Structure formats: structure tokens, C-alpha cells
Fold TetR/AcrR family transcriptional regulator.
Amino acid sequence: MRTDSGPRRSAAGRPAGPQPAKRQAILEAAVAVFLREGYNRASVDVIADEARVSKQTVYNHFGDKERLFIAAVEEERERVAAGFAAGSPYVLGPDGAANAEAYDGGDARAALIAFGHRVLAVLLDERASALRRLVIAEVARHPSLRPACAEGEPQQLVKYLAEMLGRRSSRGELSVPDPAAAAHQFVALVVQQGLYQSMYGTRPLADDEAAAIYESAADLLVRAYRP
Amino acid sequence: MRTDSGPRRSAAGRPAGPQPAKRQAILEAAVAVFLREGYNRASVDVIADEARVSKQTVYNHFGDKERLFIAAVEEERERVAAGFAAGSPYVLGPDGAANAEAYDGGDARAALIAFGHRVLAVLLDERASALRRLVIAEVARHPSLRPACAEGEPQQLVKYLAEMLGRRSSRGELSVPDPAAAAHQFVALVVQQGLYQSMYGTRPLADDEAAAIYESAADLLVRAYRP
DNA sequence: CGCAGTGGACTAGCCCGTCCAGTCCATTTA
DNA sequence: TAAATGGACTGGACGGGCTAGTCCACTGCG
């Protein structure tokens, strides 16, 4: 019976358990291969090669292809989510409020435009798009993926935008009866066409097209909610 | 040298060429199996069985799995597109204009709501959704699918809506500076969340949720474009 | 010494695409 | 009318290729 509570180690040898470095290498290779090939065409041998690891090690760490897949998707999903928060300081600071007013300056239209620009950037990031396509392709046959996407990606952004609209509304700058709904609407307007194109892998939405989209979305909201 | 222009026939035997009935049966089975299983997991043997046809016949008609797949997607795409037009008499009559004013009565809000309701119905049809998921999953590895979706599905609907907005605008009922853009915006508002849920295969958007979506979308446009 | 990791062989299974002998049948020919 | 004809279709077998997952003898290191 073991009495210490530290990491299990035997009488001699390195700290027990699979090596985290190997695990990480396998995960990264798995992400790359699954995003590139999809679940079925991705072969465990290729993943092992690409991770510079023996196939047996892959099975030691993850058990089978299915579980490796789930873990890889989760890994990439966290990477993308981290990009949401970290890469967008004005959305949520570390404490969730520090930069909460970053978009409160200027007029409403300018703030919405800046916000829309940012939303498109994070949503149309190439790896995020590839992950979306992969999950859509496989979620029907791998129900464990469901939680990975059920919340919807832009949740946090919508929430922040709703707060911004609420503040501008209480300042009398706008007249927004339901800020949460309005935020959803703005994000839908901004995101729709870009998502469509990223899903079908057609041309990835030129900068001026994107600009036209979020500018007219901002115009629409400002017109509708002028006080 | 043949002199008649009828279907090729040899000295004896039934009219030459593969039997269209078989071809159709194969196509329908292929659609069913591909939508159900995806490209890789769908096996030609299963499709042949389900079409009550021998595997050799499948290969006689379509050459290989790839071409069968393309043909199946095209078949289903046409079926969905037909549903767009035929099933929605108020969008385009047989001559393209007969019912063009079907939504011109009533006030703008009511017309937009009715229109949004219809758009959601055709876009979230279960088979249409399954086709969308399949194409998204495979378009990267089967470039021949590109044309099948490049135009975007709701094109026709958007065009009609733009015309309706234009008419109401010239009647002074609304003030829509750019009807085409406004139509795109309305469709984006209506469609976004439902598409999202149908892609990820989560719960298929209850009726009251759908109603809330297109009602508030109609409200937004009416507010923004009041004369 | 003990254990994570290696590399390669191996099993078992699936699937595409081909092949072939034989059936069916509408039409032509005798 | 009866036989011949040739093409579409059948059903089952099979080759070749790829893959998931297992096994094992071996290595290197703390």
C-alpha cells in the first residue's frame, strides 16, 4: 500500500506514468493529421510517424483511435478558445472586467465596426475553420464531440457585446430594448457569410468584403436603435 | 454505319444502354447511404444491396465510387433545389413572376415574418441539412463538389426578398437604401442560429425559438428602415 | 533494476474494383 | 411461330491494398 501522495514512483526509475512530452507530441500530430485528413482517412501509423513516436506508445497513451480523436479535438478546441480570450484583450481581461470598457469610447457605429472586425478575425482563423469542418463532419458518429460545440463559439463575445450595448443604451446614446438579443443579431449579421464560405472552403472573404459586411451591420443596428 | 437517329440498338435485343430505372434506384440508395454514413464508411456493396442491384451493375452505371458519389450529391442537391421553388409557390411561380407579389399584401412586418418562417422551413429540412453536412465534410477532398454549393443556397430567396423590399420602398412604406443588402441581412439574421444547430446536429430549433428569431429580425428591419 | 519507449512483425477485417459463368428478355431472323 | 441473338443484369468469388490493434524482443535511462 502506498502512503505518500506524490506522483507514483517505483523503487527506482524515472517518475512513473507516460511521459507528458510524448503525450503532447502525439496530440499535436493527431490534431494536424485529423484536421488534414478527417477521421477515417487519418491513420494511426501516420500520426505516430509524424509525432516521431512508436505506434505502441500512441496506444499506451490513448487506448484507441476514437479516444485519441476526442482528445485531439478537445486540445484544438482549447487552443482556439484561448485565442478568443487571450488574443482579444478588449473582450475579457484576465479578471474578466479590466478591459470591459475598451470599446466604450467613440461613437456606437465605430465601436460596432471595430468589434465586428475582431469577431470575423477570430472566427475565420484557418485552424478554427478546419476544426469546425472536422467536428461537423464527425459529430454525428462521435457523440462525445457534442459538448465541444454545443455552447456555440461566440458566446463570450456576444455576452460582452450585450453589455456594451446596455451601457450605451443607459447612457442614452442608443435605445436598445433587449441588448442580449441585439448582440446576437449583430454577431449573426457579421458572421453569416464568412462562416458559409469557410465551411465550404471557398475563397476566404476578402478584407473589403468583410469590411462591407460589418459596416452595413453596424449601420443597421445604429439606424434601428437610434434613440 | 447507322442511319436512323433513334436510340442505339443492335441487330437484336432491347433498346441499348443501361436501364434508367436501375440507375435511379442506385442513385437513391447511394444518396441514402452516403447521407447516413459519409463517403468513407459508405460501402459500394451496401449501396448495391440497398438498391436491390448487383455490384457490377453499379460499376456499369457509374464507373467508380467517386463518380457515384458526385452523381448522388448532385441528385440530392437538385431535389432540395426543386423543393425551394416548387414547394414555395410565393417565391417563384412556374413562369418566374406569377406569384411575385404574393407577399406584397399586409404590412411589412407581417410579410417579413411570413417570409422568414418559410426560409427557415426550407433551410432546416432534415435532408437538406444532412446534405449540407456531407458536402462540408467532403468538399475538401472532392473538388468536383465545389460548384454544388458555391452559389449559396438561398440566392433565389434573397433575390425575391430584395424585390419585395424595393417595391415597398418605392411605395413609401419603407425606406430601404440598398434592398439587396437588406435582403442579405434579413436572411442572415433569420438563418444563422438554425444553420448552426443543424450543422452540429444538436436539437433542431423549436418552433417558438424560430418564431422569436424571425420576429425580432423583422422588427429590426422595420425599425431601421421606417420611412 | 524497472519501466517507458521502440520497431517491426503479425492478425484479422474491411472494401474497392474486377472477373466470370450463367439468367433474362426484347427483338430480329428463319 | 419458334429459334437465335446480344446486351443488361446477377451473384458470388477473389486479388490487392490498407488499417486497427496486438505482441514481443530489445533498448536506454534514471
Summary: Chain A has ten helices and no strands.
